[in-house]
Description:
By secondary structure, this protein is an alpha+beta fold. It is built from 13 helices and 47 strands.
Amino acid sequence: MKKFSICFILFWGVVQVSAQKDSIYIAAKLSQNKKILEVNQEIVYHNHSGKPLDSIKLLNWVAAYNKRGTSLVYRKLEDRNNSLHFAKPEALGEILDFKINSVKNQPVSVSNVSEENLFFVLNQPLQVGESITLDLQYQIQLPDKNFTGYGTSENNIALKYFFIVPDHFDPDNISKRNYLDTEESVNFNTHWTVNFDLPINYFVEGNLQQNNINSFNGYLDSDPEFIISQNQFPTINVNTEDIHTEIKFGYNITPQEIQNLEFYLPLHLKFIKEKIGYVPERLFISDKFRTKEDFFGNNDIVFWKYRLKLFTDPEKIDLDYFGIIAKKILDESLIIDKEDHHWFKNGLKSYLETQYLKKFYGETKLLGNLPETNILGIKPLKWFHASDVKLLDRYGLAYQYIMSQNLDQKIDEPFSALSNFNDMAISSFETGSLFSFSANKMGEGNFNDLVKKYIAENRDRPINPEAFLKELSQKEHSTDYLSEFLKHKNRVNFKLKKFKTKEDSLEIRIAKNTDDAIPVKLETQTRNGERKSYWIETEKNERQKTVNLPAENIYKITLNDDYIFPEANYRDNFLYTKGLFSNSKKIKFKLIKDIPNPEFNEIYLNPRIRFTNTYDKFLIGMNFKNQSLFDQKFLYSITPSFSTGTGKLTGSGAVAYSFLPAESIIQSLTLGVSGSYFHYDYDLAYRKGSLYSNINFRKDPRSTVSQGVNFSYNYFQRDLNAKMIADRDYDKYNLWALGYGYADNQMIHEKSFSISTQAMKDFNKITGEAFYRWEFAPRQKLSLRLFAGYFARNETRNNTFDFGIARVSDYSFSYNLLGQSATGGILSQQFILADGGFKSFIPGTVNQFITSVNVDTSVWKIFHIYADAGVYKNKNNPTQFIWDSGVKVRLIPDFLEIYFPVQSTLGFEPGFKDYGKRIRYTLILNLSTIINAARRGWY
């Protein structure tokens, strides 16, 4: 009690000095089991809102952990993390035994303390400039640290966003704010006094000035953060001529890492101070912050027992910690509403990184030392353009990658709506590229001076970075476009149209697809490698510009080289002035898919050996295509192959073009034509030609929902054997198909729906399918599928186009069956979940209508049970009811699964002598499906 009184007196002394700044005092006692934090807290709150307040809004963000259905739980599910959703009650976080009093004798009432936003209703309005002191007592049940990186664990306790604090970004109680684990600022420009009472042998570190072992105080423009552990983590003090900074770490560091950091940290701080003019006296780096802000893409590649090092350990330390330190200093220097203005600090961080890389890693490659890896005297990575790409190009390449899929977002998109990849590629990399581009144009010194001035003038107060853009525009008019540029998904493209030689000069025509006055950097190069750069100004509404330059033996002309500006297409930024490829690009043949080199027209030659079915067996061929690691609007792929099963030439080919409107209800519109020639039975081939169109509708990049419409016209020609000819089977037919699909691949409640119609001269059918899968416990799921098929018209000669009950008729050759025409043996036992979806071999097909329900649920680990039921009707026959049930073993979920039928309409199937032939299996070998599943949660 004596200790509390002394601290309380000191606290009031600070409040006297702090004038209109809020103050918070906290006495926190940690329980022996490290689960409960007892808190006595006093908040001196000033009304800075500009109007009288009837209530005070405080944030109680530990409530985000207290139940299913909170915004935090949904956020984690979007990121493919269900640990919080399935957490046990003792692992959750909440406020317990909450009490509140007003020191000024003004009674208050409080809203539900299980909510994230607490509204303290005042008996009398708090006038502008006046303050009120709130006395709070409560207990925090700390959540498991595994959920967000904050909370309690066996090794330590990380505290951030758990104490109740005023919401400084929304003092007017305009809206509720929810904790999303996005590291946003909550409380700033506040004086803190925090005293901890810890179990024996526990230590605490934090981002406040430490007075003694467990006591902290001081002003913060960021949120308080502490790490409690039985270990004392390292501290590095940097003391140079003009820098005196203490850097505390909330995690263990090896002696070798400390040695490297003692060398690099002074360089980092000096470099950053030269650029932005400020370095704080204290920095605290948590393990979570390090993981979030380290250098993306410099980690070792681990393959089985082998480890391939891209960079040396000192280089990784240098690259990682420069970005970590830069972002931490920006967090301490600038008070910004991250939800609306995330791009400013993220962009400045990327700008500082690019400046640092230019100085110390200007010629370093994106793959580091990996291209030098020697295998049997060969350096295979040298064959890839990726081995020539500079580390500096990572910023432009990341933007190009996401933009090429039309999954990028506008720079000023609310942060909570950004996909995880766009947080890096757009908010950080694209914005940083724009800052670097502006600095390059106006002079880096001038840009740095502007940043220094802006930070110095706006310390300790929230800012709107659009004011920075305005100052930038006043200093450099060619940056006028930036304010509007941030508000849209941009597809700006500069193009070298052509050049003409006129006596001793070159007349170069440059085009751009925007009316904005954006400058462009033009570079010329001679055969000897001599380079000259020119900044070309463009005017408002000026779409084309002609530039005259001295010829000077110019060999190549380039626009915006090294991805210095986020363009939609770099392929038209290069021209050669001499040789066979004058006024065009060279053609280059490559063996393996690679990062595209925009300077060339690249054709990829990929040898292919793959097993297709029991008739063609292995196909040996060569694929010719123009598709690199990045998506392109125009794509072609041609694959002639030799069929080892038939000894004949087979193959396929396709050409497609995609329209990718930047801001539209449509994400992509693809038009294409394709053809193929393979075998569907022994010595029987099929030929397929298709015209198709697919529309994918725009979706929130964080959403798991996708939907689209597809239309196709398909022409088929099949070889027939004598029996098929006698039975008047179909050798030629046309199919028209139109369909709509909706899918929501969220973690807990996965669902999809589709409806389609298909027609030819002899029939018209309509099908609908709905699917729902519920994860009711970790890795335990219940699936429900409903299928309905109906022939609006059926005048077919046989059952080729009928609905299947237990087998599908693959007359459209789209299911990748191993035995297309197999009627017995292991190949005929392959199961495709389509049409009726019955696993038991219930005989027959359906030529009028069928409705079926398929149910599947987890029992134990990889073992499931399933049941199917349905009704169907054939012409001139009564309606039939059928059902089956059995056990499913999921060896590789959704890819390799085995079905063991038990009871069905046919009887007790294990009692049948041929039971082994009744076992079914699912085998899906689709690499794109695996990739799409792996990237969920990123975009």
